[in-house]
Amino acid sequence: MSEMMDKSGGNPFEDDVSLKSNRKLGVMNKLRRSIRRAAEKSPIPVGGKGPKTPTKDDESASSPPPPSPNPNMSRFGDSLMKKGEKIRRSLRLPKKDNDKTDKQEPLLPVSEGSMEEKEEEKVEEEKRMEEMDETYELPEIPNTPLSVMQINNLIEKEVLEEAHLNLLSMRKEFQQEQQKHADDSPMELAKKEKDLSLLYGNLRKKMGDIVRDSNSLPSRNKGLLVPVARIIQEEEKRAEEPGGLLDSWMEAWREAVAEGVKAKVEKVPLEKKEQNVSWLAIHLGHLGKAIVEDLENVKKELRWSYPPSFKVFSTYVRSYHRVVGQHLKKLEVEVTEQKDLYALLDWILNRYKSERIMGSLSLQPDMQAENTDLQLEDEFLKQLKEKYCRKVKEDMRSSLDRVIELEDEEVWSERKALRNEENILKSLFPMDIWTNVKSNAVNTRKIDAQLEVKVLSSCLEELKHFPTRFESEFRRRCSALRPQPLWTEYHIAYINSFTSLQEHMEGYEASCPGEVEGLKKEVKGLVVRLMEVLEEQFKEDIQPYLRRMMTRKWLTNDDDFKQLYSRTNQLSQHCDLMMAQYVQGFAGRLHLHVVKQYVGQLMVNNYSCKNRKHEKAATKIRHQWTELRNLFEDMESPHEWLHPVGDELSNIIGQKNKADIQNHLQPLVEHYPDFSKKHLVAVLYFRGLMRGREHQQILQKLSALKKELNTSGDDRNQVLFGDMQVTVNTDCLSNLPFSCFSFLNN
């Protein structure tokens, strides 16, 4: 590098003049004075109309100064005016008429009206601003370049145009020497090429720093952007010539813009999530504001320092798309909460392109031709949505676990009765769950309609497992309550509650049919199991009292029946608190069970009424049957076909004349085709008729009626006697001929 400095001259006076006369172009007053002095020495007047023939006086007055000891001085002096004029054109400076005398205008008082006028003038001035001309005229390239050190100093001091002109001169020398002496001095060429590469690299780095900081330090760098733009244009033209940098200067400029944008983004305040639960929302708010302010500055200020081909505003917009996308990718790693994932998705999909940021009115109309979408990595948005759905599902599970915990803390542990809402027992949790799911759906819909469906699917998929988990905890915590009335109320309340929950979720069947169907299946299974537990408990409760029906004690004591009636009545009252769609089926199953067990006692007990006790027994059966029938009617049992059996059996049992019994068989056979001879034998035994001619005639009458009415007893929709156990007392069969046994089962 020192050899290059020696070869190029190294005159201190020349160096000082060159450096001082080419200070930063932003110092406009010094530049104007230099241009004016050069114009005064020019043979062509600034305001003249054409060349003037010089006189002797003129020649003597304008005789040139003694020649500089260095030939470069005359070159700088002759070209100074041209450079100044070209620089003025690049900067769009107005020409100053030397014939006009500067006059100081009188100071005027400042008023509110004048301030408003100045603001309006400022707005109008911004409207009149135009981008730099696309074309330009390159100043004269020096014949002999400055030394490497001098050029590097110019670069460091940001005298960019002068540095670049000398680089072009040095590059020209290199090209000439390469053509003439490529084989003679390869080492010298390689050294000069290395120096060129070093200086060009330093120039590009300095220009990159200026561009990067241009929006952060506009007052300092604004004036430097003009030579930066012209250097880039010139180097793009000379891209194919030897001695320059291989990669694109325009692309390097875009990278510098992106680095400046990245620096802006990184300066946006970002609190740690441990310090502030709203850390992400606050950061995204500041980030959006910083983007708008930066682009506003580009639109109003920076763009005018570049030619149109640079598309400055578009470049900054695209840089923000890319840099912000990368920034959000880094942030996503720290985002773990559902609210923060929601805020991030909302910002990406909606807020970034909204009027708050890229759609801001202050950026119009320039943004109308721009894409407003962030530039995100492939699959990033898809992965972010999946992460959000997974978090929604996790939070849903935690929420459902909390529902069970609250039910335990507030209801089961406290043995607290559940609320009665419009005569329906219910828990509060279905509304809580529905509100949670609805909130997720509504909020997600604001982000993206397709994402809403995925979120609903996640919620419903998790909700599908809730009935079984709830049931398991309920059984574990409340088994000790069985068979208290509160235990029954809990079962009825949860039958209603889960049904209510299912009805709420059915509103999403169009969006998530598979998930809703899965939930319905689980709820149905739970309701069936809760019903079965209630039924089994009821059957277990009344079984001791039913066993003692149709006995000697029963005939003289009503305690067992009163207990039977009381338990059934209590369940009937509980049924009033059950949802209507379950009451009939539940009541019907219990009705059928009570009837079978009550009537069945006639078939299995060995008690036989004697001494005309059958009349008392028939009266009692009729009375008790009426009470039971009324009770099940109140419960809205659908099995009305069971109502006649008690009265019809009472008619048979209560007949004084044995022969009259066969006259009361037909209604029983018509209503209950599955009533067979073995059942009749059992009824007759209870009535006290165990043998004799009348007994045989009654059985024969039954056979004739069944044949006549063609009743096979195969109608499974109304089976009462068909699966009823019958114990035949052998005493009553001792006097029957052997042939009679064959028709007992008919």
Automatic annotation (TrEMBL):
Region (Disordered): 1-125
Biased composition regions of type Basic and acidic residues, renumbered to the chain: 80-105
GO cellular component: exocyst
Domain of life: Eukaryota
GO MF terms, alphabetically ordered: SNARE binding
GO biological process: exocyst localization; exocytosis
Family, per entry: Belongs to the SEC6 family.
Name this polypeptide is given: Exocyst complex component 3-like 4
